[in-house]
Amino acid sequence: MFAIPLGDDGAELRPLEPWQAEEFLAHMDRGREFIGRHVGLPDAAADLDSARAWLQSYADKAAADTGRLYGIWLDGLLVGGVLFRVFDAQQRSCEAGCWLEPAAAGRGLVTRAVRVIIDWAVRERGMERVEWYVSAENTPSIKVAQRLGMSRDGVLRSRYPYRGVRQDTEVWSVLAAEWVKDGGA
Fold it and tell me: Which stretches within 13-47 are classed as H helix?
C-alpha cells in the first residue's frame, strides 16, 4: 500500500478500502454528529455492514474508473477522507469531496489532501474541470474551495432535502488551465 505524506505533522493520504471497514466505522462513530451536520456519510455508514458496503461501492467505482476514495490518517489514526464522488474520464470532469472528524479540524488536512487528488486528476488523468458541491451552510468546506483557488459558479437553490430541511448547494470549480497556471493553488 502507498501513503502520501501531507506535511511534517504525521498526516498521510492513503487508499481507503473495504478491508478497513472496522477502522472506518470507528472513525465515523467518533465524528458522526460533526460530519453529519452537512453530509449524509454517517447515515450511509451506520454499522459495520453498511460501512463495508459504502467502502465497497468506492472500490467498485475505482475499478470502473468512475470514482476514488482516500483516507486521511494522522499519527496512524483515520481522521477523515477525500474522494472523487464522480470521476468521468470521457468528459474529463470530476467532483471532489471531503469529510473530517472534529478532533482533526482546523489543521489544513482537507485542503492538503484535496490538493493532492486534484493535482493527480489534472496532471495525470487530464481532467479539465474539478467541481466541489457544498452546502451553503458549510463554511469550513467553502473555505477549502477558496484556498484551493476554486471559483464559485453559483447556487443550486433548495437542491435537496437533508434531514428534513431543503438545502441550498454552492457549486465551486477549478479548471485545469487555472490549476496549472496557479501551480496547484
Answer: 21-35, 41-44
Whose grid coordinates read 467518533? 30
Q: CA 115, 79, 7 angle in degrees (round to 5)?
A: 45
> Residue 21 CB: number of other CB atoms within 10 A?
21
Q: Which amino acid is at 12?
A: E
**Identity (one letter) of the amino acid at 152?**
R
For 37-91, write each residue's pLDDT tens digit. Answer: 999 999 999 999 999 999 999 999 999 999 999 999 999 999 999 999 999 999 9
Closest CA to 9 of 69, 71, 82, 76: 76
Strands 129-135, 165-175: pairing is antiparallel
**Closest CA relative to residue 72, chosen from 32, 39, 119, 117:** 117
What letter does residue 127 receive in the DSSP assignment? Answer: -
| Beta strand residue intervals within 1-150, DSSP E | 4-5, 11-15, 68-74, 77-88, 93-100, 129-135
Q: Residue 163 corresponds to which cell in the numbers above?
A: 434531514
Cα 120 to chain centroid, rounded: 14
Could you tell me the three cell numbers for 106? Answer: 482546523
Q: Does the global pTM surpass 0.70?
A: yes
For residue 108 the three cell numbers come to: 489544513
